[in-house]
Structures are given as structure tokens and as C-alpha cells.
Amino acid sequence: MPKLSTDLVPGLHLKNPLILSSGAVANARSLLHFLDLGAVTTKTVTPQPRIGYRGRRVVRLPTGLVNAIGLENPGPVKLANELKTVLPKLLEVDTKVITSLAVTTGDEFRYVANYLSDVSHAFELNISCPHVEEYLRLSEDVSALRNLLREVRDISAKPLLVKLPAITLKRYFLKLVDTVLEFCDCLVVANTVPATYVDPSTLALVLPSLDRCGGYSGPGIKPIVQRLVYLVCSEYPDVSVIATGGVMCGTDVLEYIALGARAVGICSAVLLCGITIVSEILQELVKELENRGFDDVNEIRGIALRR
How far does Cα 252 stand from its chain's mean position? Predict the structure, then answer.
């Protein structure tokens, strides 16, 4: 069997490169369905609990989903208690825990990290939720983002991942990457693509967010995210990247790693196909490596950039 393990960042070893992305499950207990994966990511947590938006929050399309959940979460106190109950089982099978969080100040980060540091192997800073303005704004203000990241870096020694927006303008995207890389250990590329939805029967906008915007995910966005991963990995070949966007099979995983990603996130596949899809993707990855004659998944990292 090919070797699947990889080092995401120094000190954070994954048994395989598959990661459950934030938003795939509603609570920490559901993370126990994904013990096969190298790591699991919690729903994004905010300093105070959020009930999210009310109304039609998810629309299923032929090529994926559009959602405007509104970062619904129980807050750091309840999440920490939930994680304490599932962490022993996750540790038993060497599945790492990445806690996703959204904050706007260093003090907010300190408050959240105080509860979650002991139950997290790494923090993912979500600066790019397309349907919650106060957090999306961070990715649009490079100066404010730099100040926040500087404070966060001083507060916690945990590996810091930053989830980037799906910005298609090359110059601005790389400027944002350059800013973030001053402080973080790994980039998550990328969040859902900003989108909206008109109900064809009523010709009305249906998403309940204030600006009627949501996030588009699923197989339809894979070429968009692949370009962003390519831009990062070709410009910064030594940077650790988690690629997430439209992964539905083992070949999708191989493609992202070939572009330079160290790990690959899975989210919409779970929402569209159910929890068993992750084991199927892992099995397909192994078969693809064997069929192509690779003994180690790390052998293919960045191969597309050299061809």
C-alpha cells in the first residue's frame, strides 16, 4: 500500500492528506464519523454563539450547493466541552483536530483560544465567509488583517491556518497571500465562491443573508480553486496549502496534490453524498496511486508544476 502520511506543518503530522473541512458537520460529536481522515475541522466558532440566518439557507444545484448559514455555532464554551468528549477517540486513531474560528480582534481570539487550545491541534482563522460581512471584511482590508494576524501570532503558539477567499483577481489574491504568509503556517485555499440564487418559480431572491449573498461549493468550483492553488504553489513553492473545493473522488485529491497542495479538504461531497463518501475517496486515492506506480503520495506533490 502506498504511503499516505504527510507533514502539514512542522510538528503537525497527518496519517493521510484528507481533511474534513469546516462546515461539513453540525456538531463535534459528528466528527467521530470521520476517523479515517488525517484531520477533522470543526464548524467555525465565534466568540459568542450565533443562531445563524432563518429561512432557506441551502440551495442544491446540479453542480453543487449555495448556502447562507450565517456561521451558526454554539460558541467556544460549548464547543470545547463537546470536543473534550470526542477527543480521546480521535487521538486513539491519530486523527488531528483543527478548530475553525472567526474573530475580528486579538482580544476575541484570546478569549476563544483560552477555551479551545487544549482540545485543538491547530487553529484555522476564517477570514472569508462570503455571507457574514464582519468577517469577510477582514480579507478586504489588508492593513486590518495584518494587525489582527500579528496579535494572533503573539497569543498562541498553535499552528495557524488561514482560510482564504475565492478571489479570482490574480493581483489582489496574491497580495492577500503575501500579507497572510507573514504570520501563518498554512493556507486553506479556498472558501466558498460568493454567489446568489433566484428561485425560478417565484423569480425572487431566496437566501436570507442581509445582502442576499451565499457561498457556492461543490464540483462546479473545482477549476476555480485549482487555479488559486496553482497561483499560490507556483509563486510560493514551499508554502503548506490545504486545497478545498469540489473534491468528489480520489482523482480530485491527486489533482490538487499535483498542483502543490500538502492536504485536501472535503466538505460538499459529504453534504451531497453522505458520510461514507470520505472512505470511498480515500480508497480511490490509494487505487490511483497504485495504478500510477507511486509508492508515496508526497511523490506527486507539485508534479503538475514541473510538466
Answer: 16
pLDDT along the chain (307 residues), means of 10: 97 98 97 98 98 96 97 98 98 98 98 98 96 86 96 97 96 97 98 97 96 97 98 97 98 98 98 97 98 98 96
Q: For residue 235, how many other CB atoms are within 10 A of its CB? A: 12
- Return the residue matching grid coordinates 491541534: 121
Q: At what angle do helices 76-92 and 106-116 cross, to 10 degrees?
A: 50
CA distance 46 to 77: 10
* CATH node for 6-306: 3.20.20.70
CA distance 244 to 226: 9
Cβ partners under 8 Å of residue 27, min gap 6: 43, 74, 82
Q: Which residues are catalytic?
A: 129
